[in-house]
Amino acid sequence: xxxxxxxxxxxxxxxxxxxxxxxxxxxxxxxxxxxxxxxxxxxxxxxxxxxxxxxxxxxxxxxxxxxxxxxxxxxxxxxxxxxxxxxxxxxxxxxxxxxxxxxxxxxxxxxxxxxx
Length: 116
Known about the structure:
- The protein is mainly β.
- It has a domain at about 45-115: Efflux pump adaptor protein, beta barrel domain (Elongation Factor Tu (Ef-tu), domain 3), CATH 2.40.30.
- The chain has 2 helices and 5 strands, in the order H-H-E-E-E-E-E.
- It has helices at about 30-35, 40-45; strands at about 45-50, 65-70, 75-80, 90-100, 110-115.
- A 5-stranded antiparallel sheet has the order 1-4-3-2-5.
């Protein structure tokens, strides 16, 4: 590696992915949170559809692991709600889980697998 690039570059191409930390001015926080908290919930909450038969043992507060496809990270989360109705055709119900802590690596649009 050092043979190819002995030190990091001071500047990279305009389309090169970069990671930056930003501070949001208090007057702009509503934009970050989104209408009704939609943007921030997209980062801290995830929904999954499960077989309705799982309602026998799966309850609010149940711990789960979410394996993030893009990073391979295994993150801890907790079931925060179960849907109000079972889909009659598929016999499934929506489940929402919330991450147990703030994970800096999460961004909207990521996908993963939930382990119960």
